[in-house]
Amino acid sequence: MKAMRVLVGAVLLVRSVCAQGTLPTNSNARPFHVVDYDLSIDLPETGKTIAGNALLTMQRLGSGDTLRLDLLDLTVSRVLLDGKEVRFVRDSTSLRIGVAGARDRFTVAVRYAGAVTDGLIIGTDSAGRWIAFGDNWPNRARRWIPSIDHPSDKATVSWTVKAPSDRRVIANGSLVEETPLPSPRDPDGSAGRPVSWTVTRWRESRPIAAYLMVIAAAPLVRFELGTTACKVAEFPGCVPQQLYVAPEQRHMAPGEFARAGDIVEYFGRLVGPFPYEKLSHLQSSTRFGGMENASAIFYDDKMFRRKGADAGLIAHETAHQWFGDAVTEREWGHLWLSEGFATYYSALYLGHAFGDSALVGHLRRDREGLVKSANVASRPVIDSLQTDLMALLNDNSYQKGGWVLHMLRQEVGDSAFFGGIRDYWAAHKHATALSDDVRAAVEKRAGRDLRWFFDQWLRRPGVAELTTSWRYDAAKHELHVVVEQGSRFAPYRLKVPVAITDAAGSTRTQVLQVGAQLRSELVIPMRTAPSAMVVDPGVTVLGTFTAK
Ligand SMILES: [Zn+2]
Questions:
Q1: Strands (E) located in 165-286
Q2: Is 227 in contact with 213 (CB distance < 8 Å)?
Q3: Residue 398 Cα, ligand 1 centroid: separation in angstroms?
């Protein structure tokens, strides 16, 4: 997702709500896995009270007599195990169901109801109309869906939503049916104008994490964005895309979403086939600038009303369909696998669409922030000790994660980098991954060990701090370049490009192999003394540069 800079205040405001008592369960110790969610939700005409029926298909992974599902706030009235009513225990954060004697694969059906306070955000739009949008990241699915609410547990999902017919219901996957119910009879008109209801069903046939399972129910207007990526779609045919906006925003469509087809085509060719049935873009009430719900991206309503979405945001959320959605970080501490990848690949798209200077400008701006960041100086990118999940939405996960990919590309070259990431993606799509899976895939393509690279950039804090000096030895025709590393962080092993201009005014770029030591001296044969030297002219090293 993208917590827009202007929205940082809003994100901080809600942090305490998310953090209270809802830390993820230990994924390794979990004895059960949800294979499929079949979710039926009855939405109200007014107010926030929903009625739900969740049919979960479960797989047993280990021994255990009690299935624990995450569920807050709502009241459970009945639980069925393989169709038979069973006892359950409810507390403030979970629903525990006795499953002793159940087979390796079984179903549980949970009937529940209540006023929803989070996860499904129910409110009114600026015209006073009732609207609802799912907004689950990181662990708020449990506020309205009985679930194993952790990114390590991915499942397919079906939605059956009953709502007043003047609302359009959009969800993950493909549309299965949209059926108006028979109008209620009101022969003498005493009940006023009767509300007509529609049942809408969607089906996501690829497994996704609970934080990506959403519905939207709002009076949205639909625009077709066309079909693209015909040769790079996982499903037969091409990738259809749609834009849904509030009726008053009709004039904004399609705006920058005219690029949506090009963006999906670009990532499809660069990474792998688009992994879902369709891709919708919705004006919504997400608390984030954008939220990458699988096949149904939600964008912030206020931003939409002000200026629509920009190409960078659309590319970021679209890149998440591959990174984060199809391949999901198995542990929250590896969030850069989602946000760092979306940051770098969206920057790559900007380079593709607007020229290399757009990519370089992006990297330069991000670096300016990173080298000054107290967070980057004090915590590693893979931050397994952070228990406040909202606090992981920081410059380590996003900008430094993106920069690590950029440097990995410089380290191994384009072929091994893009090939390695394609291999990583193909090996883990519709499943989960950890940072070592990226390392293994790129190592295989590069044909060498890269543990040192991942360790120095992901597992310890900091950036490189380089002081460079040079002298020319006229007798030996040698240029001596000295690179000293600051002592604030342990020294880095680096490739440092330098652009050297000779007396005649011609410039060549030489890549210096700097060792993980405080002082490196490198010798470059040169016929005449150089007139100038520029360190890192192409913006490929995450660090600061001082000339001595
Ligand atoms: Zn993101």
A1: 168-171, 174-180, 197-209, 215-218, 221-228, 239-245, 279-284
A2: no
A3: 8
Beta strands in 263-415, from DSSP E residues, in sequence order: 279-284, 290-291, 296-300, 327-329
Higher-pLDDT residue of 1 and 193 is 1
Residue 430, SS3? coil
CA angle 200, 322, 292 (to 5 degrees): 50
What is the 138 CA–ligand 1 centroid distance (Å)?
Answer: 12
Q: Which two tokens mark 464?
A: 């490189």
| Residues 291, 458: Cα–Cα separation, whole Å | 25
What is the C-alpha to C-alpha distance for residues 407 and 366, in angstroms, rounded to an integer? 14
Give 348 Cα–ligand 1 centroid separation in angstroms.
15
- Which residues place a Cβ less than 5 A from the ion ligand 1? 1-2, 339, 342
How confident is the model over 36-45, as pLDDT tens digits?
999 999 999 9
The rounded Å distance from CA 291 to ligand 1 centre is: 7
Q: Is the full-model pTM beyond 0.90? A: yes
Closest CA to 436 of 412, 417, 454, 410: 454
CB 386 within 8 A of CB 379: yes
> Could you please report the per-residue DSSP string of 298-321?
EEEHHHHHHH---HHHHHHHHHHH
d(CA 164, CA 173): 21
Q: CA dist 45 to 42, 143, 162, 191, Å?
A: 10, 20, 10, 14
Per the DSSP assignment, residues forming a β-bridge with 224 are: 242
The distance of Cα 132 from the centroid of its chain, to the nearest Å, equals: 22
What interhelical angle do 414-428 and 401-412 show, nearest 10? 120
- Quote the pLDDT of residue 191: 61
In 289-427, DSSP assigns E strands to 290-291, 296-300, 327-329
Pairing state between β 507-514 and 32-42: unpaired
Expressed in angstroms and rounded, the spacing between residue 2 Cα and the centre of ligand 1 is: 4
**Residue 320 CA, ligand 1 centroid: distance in Å:** 7
- Give the chain's domains with CATH numbers: 5-181+195-322 (2.60.40.1730), 332-458 (1.10.390.10), 464-547 (2.60.40.1840)
Quote the ligand 1 centre to 342 CA distance (angstroms): 6
Q: Contact, 118 vs 143, CB < 8 A?
A: yes
Residue 261: φ, ψ to 5°: -65, -45
For residue 400, how far is its CA from the centre of ligand 1 (angstroms)? 13
Amino acid at 196: S
Q: Give the neighbor-by-neighbor strand order of the sheet with 507-514.
A: 507-514, 494-502, 530-535
| 37, 158 Cβ separation under 8 angstroms | yes
Please give the distance, rounded to the nearest whole angstrom, from the Cα atom of residue 288 to the centre of ligand 1: 9
CA distance 280 to 258: 13
Residue 134 Cα to ligand 1 midpoint, Å, equals 17
- Centre of ligand 1 to C-alpha 4, Å, is 10
Chain segment 92-139, per-residue pLDDT in tens: 999 999 999 999 999 999 999 999 999 999 999 988 999 999 999 999
Alpha-carbon distance 268 to 275, whole Å? 9
